[in-house]
């Protein structure tokens, strides 16, 4: 069976469209999670190539999956760039429990810290569209980042214990007219951080992972292999510094949900007008407005903990108030 | 074939759950549109009972469907109270075209006006949850209502040409602790309007009707027949004045989408964990934030035109600025 | 020296305009704080009449002032209805310290609790205009109220330990066309609470009291003595149940600031075009957007603590998430 | 009389502090308007130096004042960089009249156009803090800019008639940790525009100019002469391209209002605790939330008209919807 990968640029975010099967393009499933890309590949009946390693373990209530892609075949099979992809899957409970923001952030920080350089200034970039609820994770997250770079420059003695952090909300192409990568590259060239952390909303194939499966990777945010729009890529090659990506899925593509439904019922996805009408739909939890705010806060707190060390919850709020 | 109706109260709105078929409850489809309730009934293979009349015509670019339910059998068949249900279906184009807000409002006003009493004060009630994007149609709509009641009381000479209109955003039970119907009843008893217009977001079974099929009815907002929570009903019986409901679907229930997908593929909806996880999902257009604001504005303008006569677009904005 | 009181209805809220002095109306000062009404009266050189009692004490970092007005002369002198007015003045520090929301709420709750009936349902009403930052204290506060009335009705066993609380954001006359008092009266007649708590933004004469001097009173929200618009009054007489008012100043009237400035420089306020232009101005702290949110949260938490007993900070957030 | 200029960096914006008089620093007045800097200078009794030219004319209902600073003495006298400053003063009426947004924008565009290069891409930068109402003019304005640069790159044939425009909301130092000028410089080096338009909220000394006196200049946004923080300057020297600044005052500094009040009463500003408490206050119109949105829209529309030629009001909304 031949496997074809293609990519679709949605207006506000880039999400993967995996199309596998015959030339007739039977099934189309979109995901930004390496975890799911592996699942979809395996469901096609093919076996994973060399150079794709995977291990799982628990950290408290969370299930952690690490997928390392180390070969070109691995990149092609999963449609993702070489590197490490860590997914922290939380129980549904976390979304209902208000205490859990800080402890969840600690869990994420524990996985995030090894991906970051040990010292040097860090630039956090919030990707996505502030005005579209499920795409607002990035811009909302930057509001929870402890920004210190200017304080360290102005008052190095008072703030000597902190790491230099700055934050940028880069907007989206449709609202700025400038590729996000261009804006980030321009700022990186002025600020010279030791690393960039890019925060973005993701797409999942599975409703049960929405706002619950946080993915971190050291590969940057890259829409695919070299044939694609290289200008749009935020990675070490384009920016000159490591790019760590953090995100959480907030939508399932309606077409993907339909495909999965039919597949589970033993059917393939027919070419029909029904499908075309679903291309502009997304599936979200009913309480998406609240969940997006909560997820953005968790990611922000996790970044603060990974960069600034062992802050208490009270110290965190003190810095951010 | 036996037809069973049941109702589910979602956290923020009441939407219909039509369950028909065998005791095994094969298919579950939710809709607030009388138009779709008729479709679903007809798809079950049964024929419509006496006392359900239906006619269609065009008004400019819009397709108008009027369904009159005039018998108890009709109420049971469609799961909706006796009365008239008018749906104005717009081409997809209207959502892209910024000029069309005013002309669309004129089209709606033309159908709305005959449902309203010819004179007397009117209370517009915005239903739904301001903090959940697809449920915010009602609260957002009240921001576009030309409110005149206080001006007429204070300066009757200056504003003599206008009809008395007041507006209320009633909140939702989870945020107020009070049934919306209780709040509206209390205000109606103080204000004594000649009619209430209730604006609410609806659910559709069909993605192509989202933010495009505006429904108006003279039956109030009532979650079903007498066995249900009578306190929650906003209708002439409970409020003592006619209640005209206006709404537009903003979500498709994910379970309904799944059921329709499987049905079109010749399958029934299996009892599976996949379905349970979908109960908390909704399907919306990708640009739902913008569409909800636009739809709320159209409904507000339509109410103003139906109540205050032939305002120009410029006069409308003048009153609302 | 003759003392004249008059009142001005601002578009969105009622604030007091104290005008004292000769017929030439030398000074005009606006305040909603009984504490400041007493100050202004005393600055006029007159001595306080019988029936105005005042005592002060400290509670932790806060300074508490209780003013009891017990006679008609007292009402006239201070331009406020008979009853108790408790002001909790906080050090400036509280606005900078994020930990202090919960402890400040505990301080307020300690003074608020004795004003409330010991049992029975309570209706919290948020007054003011959500769309005008310094007037949004009331609507924002209701978002922090633990609403329980519907839970107690639906599941009395699970929630038996809680007091029944409901909440209403009543809007403003200019946006609803209905006097706020009419709306509240209508809802009170349906809900039958044992008391109403009315939350509102206030005006102060003094910049240093902005977002720092919280006033509670058992007199309702009443714009003055009987000659004024009685329909607008929210008090025991109009609603049939006790009305406890809570508020904090968010603005100083620009004219009042000007008058105080000139007075301190030994001058009276001249009749000049400069003054007319200042009638539409308000003075606020530069960080008013953040302070309004914080103050609304403190008042909401204080109401929860006064009504539901000794919740921890974590329990509070649990209920509100 | 000796004239001393100094500058104070407020948390979110830079505004001028003119301090003139004896060493005892009697009066302190802040303004961003060249028009008012001239007024304040003249009120000091000194006569304007050579190299400051001024002319006035009417354009419809608006009064236009052009001040050209052409010498070093002129720069020192007014505390502003060499260049042209055009102020369009509108009657109060414009703020009440909803029709006037488009016609006001036409008036501004007429003065703005000659300041801009005739061709080449333009980068519009929104300065200020989105989360502080009177400082949000810049970020809100960018939402009304017709952004075309990406369309021209992707579909040059379809959009050939348009000028390339891109837009950036740069955030504020306290939220990003990066000097705004650094961010803009980085983006300019990637995008290579022919000019930058910088939109910002301003401070006025006079309440009657709030949201009514729009200033445009070809000098960039610069906090003063060479002794100051050169990194913070957005001008041709620092960015390599012309920087046109557009703004409108939204606040009066409370200290400035106090100083003007006392001065009109024949007094000087005493050193007193009253003044220190006023340093953190601002004076704004009571309807500042609505006025800021309206002003941002007018500036956005004016920029579109100056860059894209004679759009109708309907075409403008079409592009922006």
Secondary-structure topology with pairs:
4 copies of one chain form a homotetramer.
Chain A: E1 3-9, E2 14-20, E3 27-30, H1 34-43, E4 52-59, E5 62-69, H2 72-78, E6 83-89, H3 100-112, E7 122-126, H4 137-142, H5 149-154, E8 165-169, H6 173-176, H7 180-191, E9 195-204, E10 213-217, H8 236-239, E11 243-253, H9 254-264, H10 273-278, E12 281-285, H11 288-308, H12 313-320
Parallel strand pairs in A: 7-8, 7-9, 9-11
Antiparallel strand pairs in A: 1-2, 2-3, 4-5, 5-6, 6-10, 10-11, 11-12
Explain the overall architecture:
The first copy, chain A, has 12 helices and 12 strands. Residues 1-27 and 223-229 of chain A have low confidence and may be disordered. In chain A, a hairpin with a 2-residue loop joins strand 4 (52-59) and strand 5 (62-69). Chain A is an alpha+beta fold. In chain A, strands 4, 5, 6, 7, 8, 9, 10, 11 and 12 form a 9-stranded mixed sheet that branches. In chain A, helix 3 (100-112) crosses helix 11 (288-308). The longest helix of chain A has 21 residues, at 288-308. Chains in contact: A-B, A-C, A-D, B-C, B-D, C-D. Chain A binds chain B through residues 10-11, 131-133, 207-208, 252, 254, 257-258, 260-262, 264-265, 267, 270, 272, 274, 277-278, 280-290, and chain B through 10-11, 131-133, 207-208, 210, 252, 254, 257-258, 260-262, 264-265, 267, 270, 272, 274, 277-278, 280-290.
Instruction: Assess the beta-strand content of chain A as a share of residues.
Output: 25-35%
What structural category do the secondary elements of chain A indicate?
alpha+beta
Radius of gyration of chain A, CA atoms, in whole angstroms: 19 Å
Could you give the distance between the termini of chain A?
A: 56 Å
Main beta sheet of chain A, described? 9 strands, mixed
Mean pLDDT over the residues of chain A: 83
Helical coverage of chain A, percent range: 25-40%
Multimeric status of the protein: homotetramer
- Tally of separate helices of chain A: 12
Instruction: Enumerate the spans of chain A where pLDDT stays under 50 for 5 or more consecutive residues.
Output: 1-27, 223-229
The biggest chain-chain interface is:
A-B, 33 and 34 residues
Topology of chain A as a string of helices (H) and strands (E) = EEEHEEHEHEHHEHHEEHEHHEHH
